[in-house]
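Notes from hallway chat w/ T.B., transcribed later so I don't forget. T.B. wanted the structure written out for a chain they're using in a teaching module, and asked if we could keep both sequence and structure tokens in one place. Agreed to drop them here.
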Amino acid sequence: MSQQKRRYFDHAATTSVRPEVLEAIVDVYENHYGNPSSFYEEGHDAENLLLEARQRVAKNINAKPDEIFFTSCGTESDNWALKGTAFALQKKGKHIITSKIEHHAILHTAEWLEKQGFEVTYLDVDEYGMVRPEDVEAALRDDTILVSIMMANNEVGTLQPIKEIGAICKAHKVRFHSDAVQALGAIPIDVEDLGVDMLSFSAHKLYGPKGVGVLYLRRGNRLDNLLHGGAQEKGKRGGTENVALIQGFAKALDLAVADLDQEAKRQIDLRDRLIKAIGTSIPFAKLNGHPSKRLPNNINFSFEFIEGESMLILLDYQGFACSSGSACTSASLDPSHVLLAMGLPHEIAHGSLRMTIGRETSLEDIDALAEALPPIIQRLRDMSPLWEDWENGKIKNSLIPEYSEY
């Protein structure tokens, strides 16, 4: 009996490492293993690779090399941006603005800062998960020191109006940070055009290795250290740099940027095909997130009268790896904080499914999922007392409107 084909639809959680990236990593481990802080030849060799990687990352986002700081992951970059800014600027003020749909790396850090005496405003979003620039401006105060709004939502894929928010922050002389972990390699990023002061990145979302991230910090911005212990990263982050993973990051970003437009178009075509297939074949299905201003690879639906965890189990059994939301909250049985912030009731938010496609995703994969999903949904509904009540007329009104072409 042949092994069942696996189809991976959770690229927002993580991606495979591209062969070229793995080759770059192994080369460093085997041939350039020196400590970049050492003064002998092996150290200088590693230092040169570190400098080269910094230059390549900077070039791909139109930044300067000395504005690139390597970290262990996007979560560390988010923590550093918020905590470092908060303590560096606390004499100026203690007010921070963010949104209710941020990644938990931002939300939990903001909650921790509140315990340290800072005040945080959590902005509402619209039905598509979009932050309104006018709400950001209205929330600004004389003591506001930081605004942090993610570039692209990791659950529903909505792209935020970062450029507009950046202009508002610049006009009011307030520092602006954006978690761009999901956006890097998926959409063009130009720090000068966006007007951001800080950006957080992670390699493993764009076919790079886990364990390495970046914080972009615009020249002239003060930032307290998150880690202490050495002179690495211009004295801002102690600890020997992982040159191998950093080279992997740079290689993955080079590759992603080189074919970004072509791959984004391909993924958008696949994404929209799956959205239409689900919307037209499954009743009481709601597309979550903005219909067009969304990541090329993101599809997120809520299905009425079912529970999401059972859906994931049945999909996995048939060879599909999907998600109900962020990988960082997969152990939680609570409904998505993003969907709740968008106004979905608990019972609808519980029936959500996130499908994120990637470079390996084929048309065959899309059509296979589109074929497998309707009977899974119907099977779960047939076991639901709510569905029985709907069929018997005890429930008069659906919470999800009839599907229309997006």
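Follow-up for T.B.: The mean pLDDT is 94. Might be a good example for the class.
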